[in-house]
Amino acid sequence: MRSTTKILALSATAALALSGCGGGGGESGDGSQLTFASYGSEYQDAQNDSLLTPWAEEAGVTVTNDSPTSYPRIAQMVDAGQVTWDVVDTEPFYPVANCGTYVEELDFSNIDTSQFPEGTWSDCSIPFAQYATIMVYDAEQFAQAPQDFEAFFDVEAYPGTRLVPNWAGGGALEVALLADGVAPEELYPLDLDRAFAKLDTIRDHLQFWDTSSESQQALEDGTVDLALVWSGRAYEAELNGSTFEPVWQDALLAWASLSIIKDSPNLEAAQSLIEYAAQAEPQARFAERQPYSPANLEAQPELDEVQEKYNVAAPEVQDQAIVTDVQYWADHNDEANEAWTAWSTS
Amino acid sequence: MHTSARWSALLLAPAVLLVAICFVVPIGSIVLRSFTEPELGLATYERLFADPTTLRVLGRTLLVALGAVGLCLLFGYPYAYLMTLVGPDMRAVLMVLVLVPFWTSLMARTFAWVSLLQRDGPVSALLAFAGVPGVTLLGTAAGVMIGMVQILLPYMVLTLSTTLSRIDRGLLTAAQSLGANRYRTFFQVYLPLSLPGVFAGSALVFILALGFYITPQLLGSPRESLIAQVIGVRVERLVDFAGAGGLSLIVLLTTALCLAAAVLAFRPVRAMLGQGGDRR
């Protein structure tokens, strides 16, 4: 029996050594490389073409890509002291909620923030592109275009299934309150109970999306009649022949945020990338590739007709849009999501 | 005997190691966090049980798993029984039909159900043709159950067919020659002999059903959410490893309790029916 025990112990040690040491080291830290994490697919390809590749050539840095952005993964790598990502694309609330803990404070001495819309940048992030959560409706179904979110809750005038994002920060709570008569300037802090009560009035007509590709698919297949979706997905669906039309009244403005992961091994290169990304040119190039508008309002992308239709940076859209309150979401994300799960699963 | 035991231990070592590294270590570390974060104690569990979602979704998960077991038995038992009656060629065909779903990825099959069950999809059209128009099963409990049973049925059939094929059909002839009618023969002779297979298949399907994530996520609405999805929300949206670990332990213990209760309940039934059929 003794030899068995010995072999067991030996192989256990070997296996543990193998599994334990795999993640050690990470990157060189000499500034010659950088890992960029974002949301994958064509979106990240466009980020590479418009931003990372030109910057990397100029800076002499090798860029590695990873996806998708994952908050638990960031928490794990920072807590374990094995940071393998440097720059990350996140939802806007994240760098505000985790500034200094999971993401680094940025050096703004070489960044001109005057061209960003108010409230879109923070101590730990810059906006790279803008999008909006908007109501879209099936124009084949409804001759009369809905004017505002009240129509979303009016199942008499607009019968049919409504598709909404399946998490608290997805926009359904804001939309419910606006439809219930809350003034845009009094929207925050959100009255969660009132929002859920309003959503309950159309509960049997609701469907939910978790990934934005699901929402686009639903528009293309026509399996819903009204929806709350990201403007970019409505644009993509229209290119693929969907019959849905956007309503811009009270569109909820959001933006892609770029941040540096806390304890990034390539801090200098990461800061240089952020400074480059804040400029008008890469943002304009990106907007020409993807249906998201520049956050740097100095950028002058050349847009085709459909892109212009979904251009969130257009003055008439900006005028009637509502900027989501990232500070509220940074402070209340957990509480609101627990309430959302309790509501949605019952 | 002694030498062979030693060899068995040696041969088992890789498997034990694999289970230890791939299962015990991760589960242990995440469960540990549920007791140590934010500080040592049971705060995580207080929090989880104060959240009405926990017990509601846990209860729903158990009910759905039981429902899946029931439906799998309903469809799987006659099918496995049929496999014992037909000739070897037909049995091979029936076996392949059961195994085919195993060769397709769970993801692909679930997406196939999405397009079958969606609004104005084939199932909806079929129901309309049969006189029930306007039914969409996607996003309903029925839709989730259809998808789950389709995935779980092979496990039930394979487990049952092993037991059923070992039942000596001569015993049925004997019972009938002694004057028992067909029902009595089935309920007093065949069914008791098949119970070990029923129990093994049910336990397997039940445990697998408790962990379902993709199927309810794609075929159901949030109202059909199972516990794995709620654990997913804790990790992905709340970055709450302690809460996720706590929920995992709750599920693990609930499963163990259910199985222990089933074993205890099964024992007297077997004794009553006289030794069951398992003579290994």
Structural notes for this entry:
The complex is a heterodimer of chains A (346) and B (280). In chain A, 40% of the residues lie in helices and 18% in strands. Chain A is α/β, with parallel strands linked by helices and 346 residues long. Chain A folds into two domains: 155 residues, Periplasmic binding protein-like II (D-Maltodextrin-Binding Protein, domain 2); 156 residues, 3-Layer(aba) Sandwich (D-Maltodextrin-Binding Protein, domain 2), CATH 3.40.190. The longest helix of chain A has 20 residues. The radius of gyration of chain A is 23 Å and the shape is globular. Chain A starts with a helix and ends with a helix. The relative contact order of chain A is 0.18. Chain B has a single domain, classed as Orthogonal Bundle (MetI-like fold), CATH 1.10.3720.10. In chain B, 80% of the residues lie in helices and 0% in strands. Chain B is built from twelve helices and no strands. The radius of gyration of chain B is 23 Å and the shape is globular. In chain B, 29% of the residues are buried. The C terminus of chain B is likely disordered. The interface between A and B is medium-sized, with 31 and 32 residues. Chain A: This is ABC transporter.
Task: Give the tags.
heterodimer, A: 346 residues, D-Maltodextrin-Binding Protein, domain 2, ten-stranded mixed beta sheet, 13 helices, globular, disordered N terminus, B: 280 residues, mainly alpha, MetI-like fold
Which helices and strands occur, and which strands form pairs?
The complex is a heterodimer of chains A (346) and B (280).
Chain A: H1 2-21, E1 33-37, H2 41-59, E2 62-66, H3 71-79, E3 87-90, H4 93-97, E4 126-138, E5 162-165, H5 172-179, H6 192-200, E6 206-209, H7 212-221, E7 226-230, H8 231-239, E8 244-260, H9 267-277, H10 280-289, E9 293-294, H11 305-309, H12 315-320, E10 322-323, H13 326-344
Parallel strand pairs in A: 1-2, 1-3, 5-6, 5-7, 8-10
Antiparallel strand pairs in A: 3-8, 4-7, 4-8, 4-9
Helix pairs in contact in A: 2-9, 2-10, 5-6, 7-8
Chain B: H1 2-36, H2 43-50, H3 52-85, H4 88-103, H5 106-117, H6 122-129, H7 141-165, H8 170-177, H9 182-210, H10 214-219, H11 227-236, H12 241-272
InterPro entries (chain B): MetI-like, MetI-like_sf
Pfam families (chain B): BPD_transp_1
GO cellular component, one term (chain B): plasma membrane
